[in-house]
Amino acid sequence: MVNRKELDPEKSPGAAFGQRLRTLRDERGWTQDELGERMGCSGAHISAVETGRRPPTQRFAKTVDKVFGTGDRFERQSRALRQTALLEGFPEYVTHEARAAEIRLYEVGVIPGLLQTQEYASALGDSTVKRGVASREQADERIALAKQRQASLARTPPPLVFVVLDESCLLRPIGDSALMDAQFTRLVEFAELPNTVLQVAPFGIGVRRPMTLPVTVLTMPERSLMSYAESANRGHLERDSASVLPILADYHQLQAEALPRAASVAMISQLRKGTP
């Protein structure tokens, strides 16, 4: 097709939305005008969304789901696009996390969102507002998304969740002692679930620690791999399984060096009692 713009779904979440929309349209052999007629908009509007020049509204995404029979797939993706407080790459990562069969994460310095209590998440959000890093609205978006992600773990069947926490996650005080006590209780409860493994990587590992930065590895239902990591200004979602395999190998090594689950829970319980 002449002048058909090539789409790069890795460029941004909006580009990924547009590429997916175009793929389904092409599969049905519809022109942009024909799809627009079915959706009650112009072909030019479809073109603008497909090429990322116009972000999809929630109403637009709902109509796409209705026309293509995709459940709420596009609506969820458009909702992730509106999470403006989040680093680039993370909203798309969340859509994959909600489908993953296995989740492996390593965190440093702070309890990860999947395990945070509401109070812990709120304290972190309040801190970003006070420091001028985020607006109140943006902080609330992050808190709401953490709650949404935790709810997705309750799906059937639930994913297997492996968590390695650097010891710094436990020793960094957030809020008052009551807040931390509740957070430690939450960690112990999480560790007792049948589909989870929680371990602590103590400072004593030293140079045997195979990774120093937070990372998450997803195993999808079809057994493909993805990884997600963040720098100070953006996130990176790696979709190539071959590129993720070395990260997975390092993660397995980290698990071998970390404390066993029972010893990890014992450490958390001691901190909860105020006896580090």
From TrEMBL:
Lineage: superkingdom: Bacteria
Molecular function GO labels: DNA binding
This protein's name: XRE family transcriptional regulator
InterPro entries, per database record: Cro/C1-type_HTH, DUF5753, Lambda_DNA-bd_dom_sf
PROSITE patterns from the UniProt entry: HTH_CROC1
HTH cro/C1-type domain ranges (all copies): 21-74
Pfam family, one: DUF5753
